[in-house]
Amino acid sequence: MKKIFSLISLLAAVIVFTACSSDNNYTTSDNYILEVVQAETTFGPEASTGQIVVNSDQSVVAFSSEDWCTVSVQGNTVNVSVTDYAEIASRNALVTITSGTRTVDVPVHQNGALFATKAPSVISTDYSAQKLEYEVKTNMTVDLTTSDDWIKAEIVGDNLVITLSENTTGAKRTGTVNYSYGVTSGEIQITQIDFSVDILGDYELLYSKSATSAQWAYIPVTFKYNSIDFTIGGVDFSIPVKFTNGTNPPYEVTIADEQYVGLYDPYYCYLAFDSYGYKLLTRYPQYFFSYCGTSTSSITLAEETYDDGTVIFGGAVEGMMELGGEALDEGDINTWYLLAMSAQEYTQENFLGPLLTMYYPQFEKVPADAAASRRSAPLKVRNKFLKK
User: Fold this and answer.
1) The pTM is what?
2) What is the arithmetic mean of pLDDT over 51-70?
3) Residue 178, class by beta-carbon neighbours within 10 Å (0-12 exposed, 13-18 middle, 19+ buried)?
4) How far apart are CA 257 and CA 274, in angstroms?
């Protein structure tokens, strides 16, 4: 009997031990299975979807730390979706996956939008047909459109290719290449321009006779390659200028201050600039002749084209004057003088007075069909010092 009881006791102990071991395997979280098998969680800036595949012996739950990153669960697969992103800096989220009492965090990264090209924002070419190529880098789909059929644009490999047909209109024309990616858009302005046709030629130097009223007058002038020429009282004058083929606008003209422009016998004439607000010539002549006579004093007038096709050169002055060591604001330089000198040397001692004062001057291109009589009207200048 004792042997039978001992066997029963031993069997019971084995059963109890086995039952306890089985129960421990089921309730201890360390024995749950939850591991990431595959993760596609790095995205470009466009809206897209990836997957996180896990190995788990329990049901899976997932949630995202950011609103722009959403998740859904299908069995052991977590679908991750991100929205369009147009910012340059990248962004990050965290997807938390739970199975039983086990949890794992999977980072999600979305790259910022990239569209970089060496193409300038404004392109100026001549009338000939052109094929322009500019390096481009992008990590998303870029939509390209053009404003006119003489402009074609496409991205070929790592290049933005812009094709322009020949300009046979005989006049300057401007169009755009428009691009968009995500929620961002922009444009490249393109101008086909012929300097000899569109810039050189006849203009009117428009100005006001008074700084406080609209008494407008004009001088017929001609833009040449290196000068602006005009005639007053049968005497020819020439203002030395420099034309610059820029990017925006396509052309600028720079006129240096205190330029000798011609002999109105017996007077030597100079073009000089002033500010109506400061009136340096009359109030502070010592500053006018001392501080305004540097070699860098100049004005730069930018070309503008209005909707009706009118072309003008006007705009703010750059780096022109100082008053007591303080530079005047660009917008203050609004007065031009044709000054009379007793000798061909620009000094206060030789100064006699202004032959002509022009407020708010600008150059307006004369249309080719303008009446010749408009350009033949005589101009009256101050003749206080003129003997003839």
Assistant:
1) 0.61
2) 94
3) middle
4) 10
